[in-house]
Amino acid sequence: MSKEREEAISFVLDGRPIWARKGDPVIRAAEEAGTYIPRFCYHPRMKAVGMCRMCLVEIKGPRGFTLQPACFVQVSPDMEVITDSVAVRKAQDGVLEYLLANHPLDCPVCDKGGECPLQDQTLAHGPGESRYVEEKRHFAKPIEISSIVLLDRERCIQCGRCTRFAGEVVGKGLIDFAGRGANIEVAPAPGGTFDNYFSGNIIQICPVGALTSKSYRFKARPWDLEQTESTCTSCAMGCRVVLQSSQNEMTRVLGIDSDAINHSWLCDKGRFAFEATSSEDRVLAPYLRKNDNLVEVGWFEALTQVAKTLTAALEKVGPATVAAIGGGSISNEDAFAWAKLLKGYLSVDSLDCQPEGGVDPSLLLGGKIATFDEVVNSKLTLLLGADVEEEMPVLYLRLREALLAQTTSAVEIIERRTSLSTLVSSSLLIEADEVLSQIESIDLSALAGVKVKDLSDEQVVVVVGQADLLRSSSWRSGLVAKVLQRYPNAKILPLLQGANTMGAVQMGMSPGLLPGGRVIGKVPEDFPWPNPPKSLGRNAADVLSAAAADDIEIIFLLGPNPLSGFPDKSLVRQALERSSMVVAIDSHFGEWTEYVDVVLPLSGYGEYFGSITNAESRVLPLGQSLVPAGVSQKGWEIAVALAESIGYDLGFESESDIWEEIQAISKIHRGFSPSLLSTEVEGVVVPRSVKVHIAGRRVLDPVATPGISSVKRQAAPLSEPVAIYDFNPDGELVDSNDSSDSLDELSDVMKERPTASIASRKEPDKLRLHLARKLYGYGVEVASSPTLSSLVSKPKLRLSSESARVSSVEDGDVVRIISGDLSSGEFQLEVSNDVVPGVLVAEFVEGYELDKFGSLNGGVLVKVVKA
Amino acid sequence: MPEAAESIVLSRRGVEGSHTLDVYLETGGYEGLRKALAMNPEEIVAQVVESNILGRGGAGFEAGRKWSMLKKSTRRYLVINGDESEPATFKDHFLVENDPHQLVEGTIIAAYAIGASRAFIFIRGEFALGLERVQSAVNDAYKIGALGRNIFGSSFSLDLIVHPGAGAYICGEETALLESLEGKRGFPRIKPPYFPAVIGLYGEPTIVNNVETVSNLPWIVSRGGAAFKALGSGRSTGTRIFALSGAVKRPGLYELEMVKTTFRELIFSDDLGGGLYEGRSLKAVIPGGVSAPWITPDQLDLPLGQDEVAKAGSMLGSGSIIVMDDSTCMVRAAWRISRFFMRESCGQCTPCREGSNWIEKVMARIEAGAGREEDLELLMDLCDNIVPGVSWPPAQTTICVLGPSIPSSVAVGIRMFRDEFLTHIKEGGCPFE
Ligand SMILES: Cc1cc2nc3c(=O)[nH]c(=O)nc-3n(C[C@H](O)[C@H](O)[C@H](O)COP(=O)(O)O)c2cc1C
Ligand code: SF4
Ligand code: SF4
Ligand code: SF4
Ligand code: FES
C-alpha cells in the first residue's frame, strides 16, 4: 500500500489523553476513542464545512474554552476538548430543536424512519414536546433531482451533503442551494438535473429522508431489512456494498466505506443492478429446445441431454469441437469448477473469459498489477485508450480527486477526449494505428510534468483501457509492451470488462492456461487434473469464426450473457446458428436465447455466496441475501452436476473444497484462504506479499451511511503510532523491497498469438469506426433493471471538423453510417475537435445495431452520409 | 456645521460636480497618490499604523495592523467593501455617489502599500448611480495614468475592477463577499482558517477594507498619520461619519471628530441632529447599526468612541445611530429588526437559519396580539441557543457574526421593555396602533 506512514499525536478528550492521527478532525479522533459526537453535515469523504453546528464541542483556545465544530477543527498536540459539559449539551440540544422546528412529523411514513440520524438524535436527546407552535414550512410535493432521485424539500435539513457531493466529488455542480435563510432549498440548476453516473450516492448520504430513489421510495421500512455484505459485480472495480432485502426481495444496495476501493461511493449502475435479480426475464428452471421451442424441463433431463451430446462430440471429433465463452462474470469458485471440468477432464482448451478481446492474460498474470491506491498515488499515471468514467466509474471519482489534489499526475493517450481530459496533465489524441509507432518517441514524464530524475519506474502505473471496443487485445498488449520497455517495473491496472475477469484468468479461463498462470504445455507429474489439454485452443473470436464455418459443434456460454459486449453481432448470430448445441449457463433470458438449445439456470446477483477478484487482483466476498430464484444453482454446482452426468466426480461439495484445491495448485493464491474474507473488509490482494497496514481500522461512521447498521470492521483504538509490515505468503515478515513471484514461467505459448493489423485508411472519406464503451451500453444489469434501462440514451456520433468537411457533413446533421452494403439507422452527428481526424466515434449502445459494423479483425472502415 | 479640521472624507460635500475628475483635481485630488508613489510601501503602512485608523465597516479593527498581518505571497489582493446593506446605514452610499475619486485614490494607495496588483471594489447592486460613478472614476483614473501599467510613471501597476453585488446583506460580511466575488454563493467562510489576510480571494492573502476606511487614505498620506491621530482620542482617532436617523429633526450624515462629541450632543445640538420632534421624549438609541444592543436615555453622555461604547455594553459598529422616541413601539422595532435578519441569514448554519425564522415568527405573533406570556421565556432561550448566555460581546454558535446579531435587539428589547411586551400580550394587540 502506498499510503504514507500516518503520524500519531496525543490530545486531551474529556480529561483523558487520547492518541489520534494528525490531521484528523476532532469528531473522528473522538469517535475512534469511543466518544460519539452528534453530526449531520460532516461526511468523512468530503471536506468539512461546519454548517449544521450539531457537533459543537468546547475547545480550548487563546480565549479559553469556546464552542467549535468538532468536524471542522483538526486535532493538534495537547489540544483540550470537552464533549460532555452543560454548555455543549445546551448548544447541541439547541441545534437539534432548531432542526426539528421546521421538520415535518413524517417519521411514520418516511423512508428514513428507523435509520434516521435526526430521529435517533431526537429520541436520544431531544425535547419530549415541541415548543414550535408556528406554522411549518410547506413545499409542493417532491421535485425531481435526477431521473432516479426525488427530493421532498420540507424534510431537508440543509446539511449540504448532496450539493457538496455534486460539486466536490462529481464535479458537476448541477444541484445547489437556492434562496436564503429559512427559505433555502436544494434545487437543480435551471434547465438541468443532476443526471450523471453517480446521482444515487446523494440518496445514500442524505442524513434524513429528503432524497429518495424512485425505485425504493415507500417500498420497505429499514427495520424490516436484512443486510448482507457483498461486492458489486457490475464492473471490475468490485465496490464494497451491503445488499438489503426484505421478504426475499432485494430493496436496495448501499456502498460500504472501503479505504482501498470505493470510499463509500457507488455508481448508479452498481446501485441499481440488483433490480435485474428479480426481473421478469430470470431463468427459473432448465430449458431444452424441442421442436424449435425452448421448453421447461427438469435438471436431470437437461443435464443428461448435454452430457450425451457432449460425450458424442468429444468421441467423434475431439476436444477442439467444444468451446466455452464467458466466465468473467461468475465467481472464482464457479470459474475454477468449470475450468476443471472443461480443461481438466474434457481437455477442452477453447475457453475464453474475455470474448471482447480484453487484456492479454500474459499481462494480467505476468505483469505487476497496480492497486487503486497505487493508481491514485503514482508519480505518473498513463491512461492508455481508457475512458475511466465509462469503464470503471468509481475509479474515475477517485482519480478525479487525486488529480485535483495532485497526488498523481496523468497523461492520457486516446482517440477522443474523455471526462478526465481536462484534469490530466496532457491529453494526447492520436489515431490508434499511429500510436504504436509513436509511443516510443513521446516524452511521457515531460508531458506529466514529472522530472525524470524523480521518477523511478515503479512509480509509473499504466491504466489499460478498452475505451474502443474494436481495439484488439494484441493492439493493447503491443502498446503496453512498448511502455514497459521504457518503464520495465511499471505496474498496470487493466480496466477489465467482467467483474471477475481477473479471477477467471487466474483460474485458467483463457486458451493455453491452467489455474495459477500455469500453461498447458508444462504440467507437472503430480498435477491433480487427470486430462489437461494437449494443444492450444481458440479464443472467443476464433471460436465464433470457426463455428460460423461449421468447425465447432458445442458452445457453452458461461454466465450472464457473456457476448453482450461483443462488437460483431452478425458473427455471433452465424456462429450460434451453425453450432449443433449452444448451452447457456445463465441467469436471464436475453439477446441470444433464440439461438440457444439448452439453458441451465444460474443463480443471480445476491443469490449466492462466493468470491470475485477485481481488476487490482483483490479477492472480495460475494454475499447471499436471497433464496436463489426457481431451481437455479450456483455455477460450480452446475459444473459438478454436469460432470456427474458425464460420469466424473470433480470432488467438490462446497466452496471450501474448491478453495483447498485452488490453494494447492495456484501459485497466485498461496497463502490466501477464503476465511480471510470474513475479517478483511478490504478483501485480500493476491499474490499475497503486499504490505499490511496495521493502523487501527477506521470506525464506521454511522451517519456517513445511514442504513448500514454495521460492517465487519472493528474499531481498534489507536494506542500508539502506526506501523507498516510486509509479510510473505507463509506469514513471515519480510523486507518490504522483496518483490513477489513474477510468474514468469508464463511461456511463449502466450506470446505467439497472431497480432492483428489495423485497417489503414486509403480513401480520405473512409473513417475508422471507434465503438466507444459506455457504462449503460450493454450488459444484463442494464437490460433487466428497470431503473437502469430507463437511463439508456441513444448513441451519439462524433467526428472531427476536418473529417466532417471531407465527408460533407456538419454539426447537428442527421447521418447514417455506411460500409459496403450495410447501412445504419439515423443518428445525430456532433462535430467536435475532441476527436482525432479520420475516426468516427460512435457510442456503443445495444439495440441500435451499431454492432453490425463491428469486427475485431483490425477495425472497420465506414463512411457517414446525410440521412 | 463641522469645522474644516473635522472634515476629511466629506470635504467635498456640497461642492457642485464633486464626483467629476475636474472638480476632484481642482480640490487636491490624486496629490495623496503622487506623494504615496514617492514613498516606500512600508513607509505608507507605517503612516497608516501611526494614524491608528480603525476600520469603518463595523468591526473596528486597526487598518494598519490588519495590513501588517497580511501573509507574504507573490499574489495579493485588495477588496473594497461597499456592500452597505444594513438598515439605517448610508454613509458609503453617499461616498460612492459623491466622491468616487477619493475612493479610487484611496484604493490605489492601499493597493500600493500592501503590494496588490489587482483590486476590486464591491458595491451594493442597488447603488446604481454609485456604481456608475465609481466606474467612470475608474475609467478616468486609467485615462490620467492613475491606474493600469506604471502608474504616474512609477514601477507600480494596478488593475481595479468594479463589481456589483447581487442583492444580499450577507455579502457585506467579508468572507461571503469573497465567495460572491469568486462567483459562488455568498456563504461566509469559517475563521480560522479563512481569515482573508491569510486565505482570501482565490485562496490568496487579501485585505478587505471598507469604503470609508480607504477614503481616508489620501488625507492620511498627504497630512501624515500623526495629523490623523491628533484628532479624536485614545484608540478612536480621526473623524468618522455618523449616519443619524430615526426620530430626530435633522437626520443625515455627520462627520465628527471621534470621541469629542457625545450621543446627547449629536442628537440634540441645533447644528447636528436638532433634537426630537415637539412633545416627544427619548426612549432608546441604537448606537451602531441594528446588530448593536440598544442604549437608554441615561447613557446619552457617552462619547462617540469605539471603546467607550463597547465598555457600555454595545458597539459603535458601522456608525449608524437610530433614535427612537416615545411614539415608537419597541416590540415592533425589535420585530422589524428580527425580520431583517430572518430575511438576510444566508441559511448556512442551523441556529441562525432556524433561530432567526422562529424568533421572527414569535415576535410577529406578539406584535399582532397573539402572544403568550411564556413566549418571552421562549424567546430568551431561543436567543440563548444562538448566543450562549445571551452575552455581550456575544459568544457564538454560528459561522459568522450575523447569527449573534439576531438576539441583540430582541433580548435587549425584552430586558429593557418587558412591560411593553406584556401589554401586547395582555391587551391582545399593539398599544401604539
Ligand atoms: C453580516 C455582516 C455584514 C457586513 N456588511 C458590511 C458592509 O456592508 N460593509 C463593510 O464595509 N463591512 C461590512 N461588514 C464587515 C466586514 O466583514 C469587514 O469587517 C469589513 O469590510 C472590513 O473593513 P474595515 O476593516 O475597513 O472596517 C459586515 C459584517 C457582517 C458580519
Ligand atoms: S437533501 Fe438531504 S443531503 Fe441534501 S441538503 Fe437536504 S438534508 Fe442534506
Ligand atoms: S464502479 Fe463498478 S463496482 Fe463500483 S458500483 Fe460501479 S459498477 Fe459497481
Ligand atoms: S451565522 Fe447566519 S449568516 Fe452567518 S454563516 Fe451562519 S447562517 Fe449564514
Ligand atoms: S457542523 Fe460539524 S457535523 Fe455539521
TrEMBL record, chain A:
<keyword id="KW-0874">Quinone</keyword>
<feature type="domain" description="4Fe-4S His(Cys)3-ligated-type">
    <location>
        <begin position="87"/>
        <end position="126"/>
    </location>
</feature>
<comment type="function">
    <text>NDH-1 shuttles electrons from NADH, via FMN and iron-sulfur (Fe-S) centers, to quinones in the respiratory chain. Couples the redox reaction to proton translocation (for every two electrons transferred, four hydrogen ions are translocated across the cytoplasmic membrane), and thus conserves the redox energy in a proton gradient.</text>
</comment>
<keyword id="KW-0520">NAD</keyword>
<dbReference type="GO" id="GO:0046872">
    <property type="term" value="F:metal ion binding"/>
</dbReference>
<protein>
    <recommendedName>
        <fullName>NADH-quinone oxidoreductase</fullName>
        <ecNumber>7.1.1.-</ecNumber>
    </recommendedName>
</protein>
<dbReference type="GO" id="GO:0016020">
    <property type="term" value="C:membrane"/>
</dbReference>
<keyword id="KW-0479">Metal-binding</keyword>
<feature type="domain" description="4Fe-4S Mo/W bis-MGD-type">
    <location>
        <begin position="225"/>
        <end position="281"/>
    </location>
</feature>
<dbReference type="Pfam" id="PF22117">
    <property type="entry name" value="Fer4_Nqo3"/>
</dbReference>
<keyword id="KW-0830">Ubiquinone</keyword>
<keyword id="KW-0411">Iron-sulfur</keyword>
<dbReference type="InterPro" id="IPR010228">
    <property type="entry name" value="NADH_UbQ_OxRdtase_Gsu"/>
</dbReference>
<dbReference type="GO" id="GO:0042773">
    <property type="term" value="P:ATP synthesis coupled electron transport"/>
</dbReference>
<dbReference type="GO" id="GO:0051537">
    <property type="term" value="F:2 iron, 2 sulfur cluster binding"/>
</dbReference>
<dbReference type="Pfam" id="PF00384">
    <property type="entry name" value="Molybdopterin"/>
</dbReference>
<dbReference type="Pfam" id="PF10588">
    <property type="entry name" value="NADH-G_4Fe-4S_3"/>
</dbReference>
<keyword id="KW-1278">Translocase</keyword>
<dbReference type="InterPro" id="IPR054351">
    <property type="entry name" value="NADH_UbQ_OxRdtase_ferredoxin"/>
</dbReference>
<dbReference type="InterPro" id="IPR006963">
    <property type="entry name" value="Mopterin_OxRdtase_4Fe-4S_dom"/>
</dbReference>
<keyword id="KW-0408">Iron</keyword>
<dbReference type="InterPro" id="IPR006656">
    <property type="entry name" value="Mopterin_OxRdtase"/>
</dbReference>
Automatic annotation (TrEMBL), chain B:
<dbReference type="InterPro" id="IPR019575">
    <property type="entry name" value="Nuop51_4Fe4S-bd"/>
</dbReference>
<keyword id="KW-0408">Iron</keyword>
<comment type="similarity">
    <text>Belongs to the complex I 51 kDa subunit family.</text>
</comment>
<feature type="domain" description="NADH-ubiquinone oxidoreductase 51kDa subunit iron-sulphur binding">
    <location>
        <begin position="331"/>
        <end position="376"/>
    </location>
</feature>
<keyword id="KW-0479">Metal-binding</keyword>
<dbReference type="GO" id="GO:0051539">
    <property type="term" value="F:4 iron, 4 sulfur cluster binding"/>
</dbReference>
<protein>
    <submittedName>
        <fullName>NADH dehydrogenase subunit F</fullName>
    </submittedName>
</protein>
<keyword id="KW-0004">4Fe-4S</keyword>
<dbReference type="Pfam" id="PF10589">
    <property type="entry name" value="NADH_4Fe-4S"/>
</dbReference>
<dbReference type="InterPro" id="IPR001949">
    <property type="entry name" value="NADH-UbQ_OxRdtase_51kDa_CS"/>
</dbReference>
<dbReference type="GO" id="GO:0010181">
    <property type="term" value="F:FMN binding"/>
</dbReference>
<keyword id="KW-0411">Iron-sulfur</keyword>
<dbReference type="GO" id="GO:0008137">
    <property type="term" value="F:NADH dehydrogenase (ubiquinone) activity"/>
</dbReference>
<dbReference type="GO" id="GO:0046872">
    <property type="term" value="F:metal ion binding"/>
</dbReference>
<dbReference type="Pfam" id="PF01512">
    <property type="entry name" value="Complex1_51K"/>
</dbReference>
<dbReference type="InterPro" id="IPR037207">
    <property type="entry name" value="Nuop51_4Fe4S-bd_sf"/>
</dbReference>
<dbReference type="InterPro" id="IPR037225">
    <property type="entry name" value="Nuo51_FMN-bd_sf"/>
</dbReference>
<dbReference type="InterPro" id="IPR011538">
    <property type="entry name" value="Nuo51_FMN-bd"/>
</dbReference>
